[in-house]
Structure to design on (333 residues):
């Protein structure tokens, strides 16, 4: 079928007008660029793309950038504070680099499970912590995301290195994320921590640059760390979480209805991602064993007492506001 020249020109013109219209409309929408090192298939990313984005699409253009392609791990909060980014999936460990008291939410064996995380995030005890982040960093924390129970994942097989207690990790070169709070956790586990960005971990395991890493089972699978490791000791040393973070300046520029909608969208995305991540944690032990990894429980009580003892005598605990640890524990089981 041939289209007359006139008609083709008209079609072309209307298409470019439509594009202009779309891009102009997009320009009317609030731009929400999110940068994260998580992959697009990570349950937190899927929840942001499938739940958060559509829920705010009337007034905002959600633009996720996964795998650290826009900003490197640990640089996102400063990018938001300087107005170069609107959103991130941040962590207590990253916030602790600005405000040491945030390390209480990154301490091993404190948060008990996903339900405890939500109760803590919504409790009044969090108000001063959230206010400091807003007042001093210009970042608003919208909702808690469940990352999962962090486990010790090693290149050595169990026959080569049977992990029972922290003593068994002595001398093990364990990759931990770069901040002080993470490095401290690595030492509290008994290992020698090596700071490294998430995007470098697979290659470091593959080449033997590190002996292991720690992450929840869904991450071990999503990042394919199981391809280059041989065991997982189920220490569950940190029930880890992230926070959906939004520039306070952008939030404050929204109408009250938009503020309510963006908050509700974040909560809905966090709830969706949490359910998906919990389901994956249940099913992945068998998956990883089928891939040939030794997956087993060490002496968790020995790890818990060693880690808690390390924290209680630490500079981190000295920064924790009086009564906060007790208030967190009171919200648990
Ligand atoms: C990691 O670097 O091990 C970590 O799990 C730290 C988390 O706070 C978070 O940044 C996470 O990486 C990324 O979202 C990738 O899963």
């Amino acid at each position: 079928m041939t289209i007359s020249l006139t008609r083709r020109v008209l079609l072309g013109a209307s298409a470019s007008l439509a594009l202009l219209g779309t891009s102009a409309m997009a320009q009317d929408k609030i731009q929400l660029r999110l940068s994260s090192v998580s992959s697009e298939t990570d349950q937190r990313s899927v929840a942001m793309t499938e739940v958060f984005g559509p829920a705010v699409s009337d007034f905002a253009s959600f633009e996720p950038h996964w795998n650290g392609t826009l900003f490197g791990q640990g640089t996102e909060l400063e990018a938001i504070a300087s107005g170069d980014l609107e959103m991130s999936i941040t962590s207590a460990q990253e916030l602790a680099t600005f405000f040491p008291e945030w390390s209480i939410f990154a301490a091993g064996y404190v948060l008990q499970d996903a339900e405890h995380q939500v109760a803590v995030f919504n409790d009044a005890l969090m108000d001063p912590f959230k206010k400091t982040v807003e007042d001093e960093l210009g970042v608003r924390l919208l909702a808690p995301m469940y990352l999962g129970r962090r486990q010790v994942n090693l290149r050595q097989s169990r026959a080569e290195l049977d992990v029972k207690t922290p003593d068994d990790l002595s001398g093990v070169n364990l990759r931990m994320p770069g901040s002080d709070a993470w490095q401290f956790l690595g030492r509290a586990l008994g290992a020698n921590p090596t700071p490294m960005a998430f995007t470098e971990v697979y290659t470091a395991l593959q080449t033997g640059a590190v002996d292991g890493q720690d992450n929840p089972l869904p991450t071990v699978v999503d990042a394919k760390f199981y391809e280059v490791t041989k065991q997982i000791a189920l220490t569950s040393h940190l029930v880890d979480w992230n926070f959906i973070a939004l520039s306070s300046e952008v939030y404050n520029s929204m109408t009250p209805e938009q503020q309510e909608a963006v908050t509700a969208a974040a909560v809905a995305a966090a709830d969706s991602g949490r359910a998906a991540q919990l389901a994956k944690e249940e099913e992945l032990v068998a998956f990883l064993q089928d891939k040939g990894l030794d997956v087993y429980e060490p002496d968790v009580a020995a790890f818990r007492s060693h880690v808690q003892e390390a924290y209680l005598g630490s500079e981190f605990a000295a920064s924790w506001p009086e009564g906060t640890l007790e208030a967190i524990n009171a919200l648990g089981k």
Q: What stands out?
A: Residues 42 and 85 are 21 Å apart (CA to CA). The radius of gyration is 22 Å.
